[in-house]
Amino acid sequence: MPASVAKAVRGEKGKPGRKPGRPRNNGKLKEKILDAAEIAFSEGGYTGVSVRDIAERAGVNQGLIRYYFDTKEALFDEVYKRRGGLLSGHRHVLLDRLLEAGGIPQVKDIIRAYLQPQWDLKHSGEAGAAFARLQSRLHSESEEHAMRLRKEVYDASVKRYVDVLVQALPQIPRRTIGLRMSFLVGTYMFMLNDLGRIEDLTEGGIHHLSKEEMLDNMVVFLSAGMQSELP
């Protein structure tokens, strides 16, 4: 840890106007810790990563992590909400655009608007890919913790999409659309993390799908499922 930062964490005497113990470049340091934690948690999950591991990755003292986040759980939550909030916000924006066009959107357009931000994020670089892995790992964490985070980050946008799908598919009960939305989430999370057996199941016919090819195929498949007749 740089001497200047360590001194700042301890506090400097004789310099009015600054809260004792607050690092000078706290914004940059905090983002550095969040970036390092995002990669670490995506690789080892919440239980498999220690505060010491994250401190070493970020090149900071463990005390600095406690200073900003207090606990490992609080750090994990902020990591998740930072990028998950952007993802959810992007979904709101795309749905707003569909609704501003007038009339009830087509099901395929609603589903594409829901999926597009996730695919854009995954292909935005190392951080986006790490967050995709982190989303998958959240399912292996304690149900109470995972449920709380998912509800806080995603519930508002998901429920808006369900509302619009109910309007687009009046012949299908809301409870069924909610159920099918859970199928949709499970499917895209599986494929998002490259867990599918595409090459095996196509007998080598498909080795790789581009971002747009994958998205196009998923939109067609999931739209058909959402609109299918009741069992």
Q: How would you describe this structure to a colleague?
A:
This protein has 231 residues and is mainly alpha-helical. It has 11 helices and no strands. Helix 5 runs antiparallel to helix 6, helix 6 packs antiparallel against helix 8 and helix 8 crosses helix 9. The chain is globular.
Radius of gyration: 21 Å
Strand fraction equals under 5%
Report mean pLDDT, rounded to a whole number. 86
Estimated structural class: mainly alpha
Tally of separate helices: 11
Q: Residue ranges: pLDDT <50 for 5 or more in a row?
A: 1-20
Distance between the termini: 62 Å
How many E strands?
0
Order of helices and strands: HHHHHHHHHHH
Overall, the morphology is globular
Helix residue percentage: over 70%
Note the main sheet: none
List the topology elements.
Elements: H1 3-10, H2 26-44, H3 51-58, H4 62-69, H5 72-100, H6 107-122, H7 126-138, H8 143-168, H9 174-192, H10 198-201, H11 211-227
What are its keywords?
single chain, mainly alpha, 231 residues
Summary of the model, kept short:
This protein has 231 residues and is an all-alpha fold.
